[in-house]
């Protein structure tokens, strides 16, 4: 009898030790939408474990250039969809200690190391369900915009889509107050494994741009594209000029960047 009890205790200890070594391993599919003069939506997949995550673009396809003229009371308006031939997926990588992301601008890859941020979320009492998960509301002001996030402690990791992070559970939905930017989970897959690895080539991070370098490079690429587009404009159009101090310039020239 004593041998049986001892054997059962040993089995229980082994099982508890194994369970402690298990790590959360998950994959969430999101729809990321932007709503400017037109609506755009892209698919992303967030893969994560207890210590890191990567939010990566999915279902990418070539995008051909489209230019359309529209006559309005204030004059002619030029609508343009920016083409995309670079099909490497954009991604946002978070290992809790650092944050890197890669965006494709005019087919150029911009790899950036994000500045360290303190995520001072304001927790709210409001709750709702997203799929089968109970979610709580949180708000934050991030780079000039107010955002609302819905997170669930049923998946207790501090990650989320795009750059959002820092809550006590994973973020399943986030949007700004004007609903210009909206991300929502479509499918959630969670399991526990003894070895769940998020693969990323960190050797490339050595040459990552700073945020200031990234912003300057984006302006350079926009100006280059404006110059190319200006050379192809029909008669009667003035050459396009980019005003770096104008928040609405992107909307005025209807320049949409792969969103």
Average pLDDT taken over every residue: 82
How much helix is in the residues? 10-25%
- The arrangement of helices and strands along the chain is HEEEEEEEEEEEEEHHE
Q: Tell the overall outline.
A: globular
> In DSSP terms, counting alpha (H) and pi (I) runs of 4 or more, how many helices?
3
Strand content: 35-45%
Instruction: Give the end-to-end Cα distance, rounded to a whole number of Å.
Output: 68 Å
Task: Give the SSE layout.
Layout: H1 2-21, E1 23-35, E2 39-48, E3 53-58, E4 66-72, E5 75-81, E6 91-94, E7 99-105, E8 108-113, E9 122-130, E10 133-142, E11 145-152, E12 170-176, E13 181-193, H2 211-230, H3 249-252, E14 255-256
Parallel strand pairs: 5-14
Antiparallel strand pairs: 1-2, 1-13, 2-3, 3-6, 4-5, 6-7, 7-8, 9-10, 10-11, 11-12, 12-13
How would you describe this structure to a colleague?
Helices cover 17% and strands 42% of the residues. The protein has 259 residues and is an alpha+beta fold. The longest helix is centred in the first third of the chain and has 20 residues, at 2-21. The radius of gyration is 23 Å and the shape is globular. It starts with a helix and ends with a strand.
Quick structural summary:
This protein is an alpha+beta fold and 259 residues long.
Distinctive features:
259 residues, alpha+beta, 11-stranded antiparallel sheet, 3-stranded mixed sheet, 17% helix, 42% strand, disordered N terminus
